[in-house]
Each structure stands twice: as structure tokens, then as C-alpha cells.
Design a protein that fits this description.
This protein is about 40% helix and about 15% strand. By secondary structure, the protein is α/β, with parallel strands linked by helices.
């Protein structure tokens, strides 16, 4: 079969007693919200001054906690519309009127063969292709010699692709590279890379000299995969779905729990120390996972510094304004300047 169980799931270890850093940090953020009712600030100083401040913090902080949201991947060129969408989904747009990759994920396709043809393309171009711009690799250069940890709501795996230490990464919301069974009793995840490549090939995509799938020269693509290629759970043959957090059916597997515990351990080991909480591209959709906890942990630790890189929402609570660095604009450009 085209799906394989993740190695860590084979170990059958009991991870239910591991500390849950995900829940603890969310609870900390929620508890801290009441502390930030005084208002929000855009920070102090000019862009150049804040860039220099952040550059200094990156070299002097005892630890760096990176919190990354969708804005970081957008800065790296992982856009869900425009040229990338036209290239891989132009036929779906023409036939079904779908305008972007995000909305396509919710479209009621007429059959499973078509739905999984869509998802194969979606998974491939957002998980198994390098980001168009070197933003993630540039960020790694900034912290590779530092004691760092990354928590992210992104599911495109670009931190690991860029070379970040996987033991220092916590993907809270899932991974485009994983399937899970629809059977609620099956709490496992399955690698989908081999299936994705087979499904792309079946639709007529052709690998170029860099081994990257491209639309064929004549543009003739199939918008369905063969029925026998519809992914099934290799354990019991049940249907599978994406390992993406949408509701309480999301599978938090052993790898997820280990990363969650590692994140909490990192925070505990550096409590009270000079820590830089570097938030990049985090919007207002899920602020309790990264933004609010970062605010609260900065407020609680007088040695901590909070930095926010955001295209148009770079801000901080008034309470930590003096220990905050807010830089608006393209995060990729800011990271390049910091190098």
C-alpha cells in the first residue's frame, strides 16, 4: 500500500502521561488575557532602531523561542492563490470556479476520485516542494548557533525542510504529510509521501530535471485518480483524512506528544532567564496558541523580550511595550536585514 505507519507509532509506548505543553501554554495565554486590557501598542522606535535591537537580542538572549504562523510561509512564497494556484489548479478553477487552495479544501467534489486528486496536488505543492523564497533558511542562519525552539501552527513542514532540528520543533496543528484514519479508535498517523507522488503521476504531472512535478507541456491533466488509488488505512482498510486540526477528531500521535512535552521542557528550563520570544507572521485567528502565551510569559519574566514581525499587525500590549520590538512589513525582508 502507499501509506506507511510513522516509525514512532510502532514503538507502542505509553505517552499519555507526558506533560502537555500545548494545553499548558494555551491555559497560560487565556489566563493572561485579562492582564492586557490596558490597550495595544505599535511599539516604540523606528524600523531601523527596532531591527538593530532585534539583531542584538538574537545574539545576547540565552534562549530564543520562535512562534510562527501562516504569515511566515506567505513571506516565503507559499501563497494559496495567484501563480502557484493557476499552475497546479487551473483546471479545477475553470471547471468548479474554485479561486484559491484554501477554499478548495472545503469544496463538495462530486466523488472521492476527484476529491483526492485535488488533495494530492494540495499536499504536494504545500508539503513536498521547497518554498520559493529562502526565508526559512535565512531564519535558520539567525538561530542555528543559539539555544532555540520553534512552535508553529503551520502544517507545511518547511522548518524541517529548511534544516531546523526536528527535536526543536512543535507542529501544533498537524502536518500535510500525514493521514489519519476516520476511525476514532485508531490514534495513528500515516506518511503520505509515496501516495502523493503516485497520485500526482496518475494525473499526468511530469517531473522536471530537478525532480519537481510540473504540468505537462500540452496542459492535459486528469482531474481524478484511479479508484484503486483512493487512500485507505493500511491497518484496517478504513477511510483516511488529513491529519489537520479541525475538531476533536484530530490525532495527536506519539510524535506530537513528544514535541509538546519538549516545548514545555524548554520553557521550564529557561524560566526567569533572558529569553527572546520571537513571533513571526501570527494572525488573530488562533492567538491563544502563540501570541497570548508569548505576551504572558514576557510579562511574567522581567528578563524576557517580545518581538513581533507581522506584515500589518505588528503590536504588543502596553504592559510590555518597553520590552517589545514591533516590526511591520514583509517578514522575509526583515529576516534578510537581520542577516
Amino acid at each position: 500500500m502507499f501509506l506507511k505507519m510513522r516509525t514512532e507509532n510502532i514503538m507502542k509506548q505509553n505517552y499519555s502521561e507526558l506533560p502537555n505543553g500545548y494545553l499548558e501554554t494555551i491555559q497560560r495565554g487565556i489566563a493572561g488575557v485579562r492582564n492586557f486590557r490596558a490597550g495595544i501598542s505599535r511599539g516604540t522606535g523606528s524600523r531601523q532602531e527596532n531591527t538593530e535591537r532585534l539583531k542584538k537580542e538574537l545574539t545576547t538572549a540565552g534562549a530564543v523561542v520562535i512562534g510562527a504562523g501562516a504569515g511566515l510561509s506567505t513571506a516565503a512564497g507559499f501563497t494559496y492563490s495567484g501563480e502557484r494556484f493557476e499552475k497546479y489548479f487551473g483546471d479545477f478553477e475553470k471547471k468548479y470556479g474554485i479561486r484559491d487552495m484554501y477554499s478548495g479544501g472545503f469544496y463538495p467534489f462530486p466523488d472521492e476520485e476527484t476529491r483526492w486528486a485535488w488533495w494530492a496536488r494540495h499536499i504536494y505543492c504545500n508539503r513536498y516542494v521547497d518554498a520559493p523564497k529562502p526565508v526559512y533558511r535565512d531564519l535558520l542562519k539567525l538561530v542555528q548557533d543559539r539555544d532555540y525552539f520553534v512552535i508553529t501552527t503551520n502544517v507545511d513542514h518547511q522548518f524541517q525542510t529548511a534544516g531546523f532540528d526536528k527535536k526543536r520543533l512543535f507542529y501544533t496543528q498537524g502536518d500535510y504529510g500525514l493521514f489519519q484514519s476516520v476511525d476514532a479508535q485508531n490514534r495513528k498517523t500515516y506518511d503520505n509521501e509515496a501516495w502523493t507522488m503516485e497520485a500526482m503521476d496518475a494525473q499526468g504531472f511530469v517531473r522536471d530535471t530537478d525532480n519537481v512535478f510540473q504540468p505537462p507541456a500540452d496542459g492535459a491533466l486528469r482531474m481524478q485518480i484511479p479508484t484503486e488509488l483512493i487512500p485507505r488505512c493500511p491497518d484496517d482498510g478504513s477511510d483516511v483524512t488529513m491529519n489537520l486540526r479541525a475538531d476533536d477528531s484530530f490525532v495527536e500521535d506519539e510524535g506530537w506528544h513528544k514535541a509538546s512535552a519538549a516545548y514545555l521542557d524548554f520553557l521550564n528550563r529557561h524560566e526567569g532567564m533572558h529569553v527572546l520570544f520571537l513571533e513571526i507572521g501570527v494572525g488573530a485567528n488562533t492567538p491563544v496558541i502563540i501570541k497570548y502565551p508569548f505576551w504572558q510569559m514576557t510579562d511574567e519574566n522581567e528578563k524576557a523580550v517580545y518581538a513581533c514581525l507581522n506584515y500589518d499587525e505588528a503590536c504588543c500590549p502596553l504592559q510590555i511595550k518597553k520590552r517589545s520590538i514591533c516590526i511591520g512589513g514583509d517578514s522575509g525582508e526583515v529576516i534578510k536585514q537581520l542577516l
